[in-house]
Amino acid sequence: MWKKVLVGAAGIAATLRHPCHLIETRHSSTSISSAVNSMLLRSLKEHYLEIAKMTFPPKVDPPSPFTIVKGALDSNSPVLKRMYGDEEISIYVMRLANIVPGGGDDDDNNGIDQLFLHVDVSKPGQKDSLNFLCGLYEDAIGIHSVSMRTKFETSGYLVTPSQYNGPVFEDLDERMRDAFHNYIDERGVNESLFKFLQAWLYVKDHRHLMRWFKTVGVFVDGKKPAKDA
Ligand SMILES: *[C@@H]1O[C@H](CO)[C@@H](O)[C@H](O)[C@H]1NC(C)=O
To answer: What InterPro entries does the database record attribute to this sequence (predicted)?
Structure first.
């Protein structure tokens, strides 16, 4: 149900790009521009209120023993963490469509059913961590790459171009690929994460969209931003 809502939200954002009102600004004066401003402000406010009324999907708990990282909705920190022995497993997530414009599947889903997962495995006393980039679907998980990263340099999903990102995973021997799959599976990284992460991203997208309407409005209006903006 909320898939549709999300697409709707993106659609609302897209209508704001329609340039029909901009023609008048060509031969503009201050008074026209303030009319344009108030039209934009009204539109932003309407959509803000509309989005604010959206209902959320039922709350999904993360698969145990993963726990949600506090503040992850508002930062680039990992979403989930767990310990595995003395290893720390951190999970970052993004929609594929947000990384590769038009990425994911090419039907009208816009890649909503495919998530991009970054799994970071770190050990005490080791300066590098083991990183997996994975595609996550409702019923499957696939590894794109395996690489070593300097701890704390891992900024979520960003792949540093200067760093070696590991061999092309598909080119590895099948037994090695299976062994890597078992390695992350043993650490609880599998398709069971999908439901939670999908719901979590929905909340995050909703929050970003609300904030976007608000901060753009505050900027155009020229007033001081509210504390929570
Ligand atoms: C995923 O991993 C968890 C924890 O190891 C396990 O309980 C669950 O059954 C796994 N799910 C699938 C679909 O393999």
So the answer is: MAM33 (IPR003428), MAM33_sf (IPR036561)
Tokens of 205: 């997208």
- State the pLDDT at residue 54: 83
Q: Write out the two tokens for 173.
A: 């021997």
pLDDT at site 21: 45
Residue nearest atom 2 of ligand 1, based on CA coordinates: 188
Which ligand 1 atom lies nearest to the CA of residue 187?
A: 5
At residue 79's C-alpha, the angle toward residues 189 and 62, to 5°, is: 60
- Calculate the dihedral angle through the C-alpha atoms of 141, 146, 150, 152, rounding to the nearest 10 degrees: -10
Homologous superfamily (CATH) of 67-201 is Mitochondrial glycoprotein (3.10.280.10)
Q: What is the pLDDT of residue 11?
A: 45
Q: Whose CA is nearest to atom 8 of ligand 1?
A: 192
Q: The tokens 């994911």 sit on which residue?
A: 104
Q: How far apart are CA 41 and CA 215, in angstroms?
A: 11
Which residue has a Cα nearest atom 9 of ligand 1? 192
| pTM (two decimals) | 0.75
How is the chain split into domains, by residue range? 2-52, 67-201
Question: What pLDDT was estimated at residue 76?
Answer: 80
Task: Determine the distance from the C-alpha atom of residue 23 to the mean position of all C-alpha atoms in its chain, rounded to a whole number.
Answer: 35
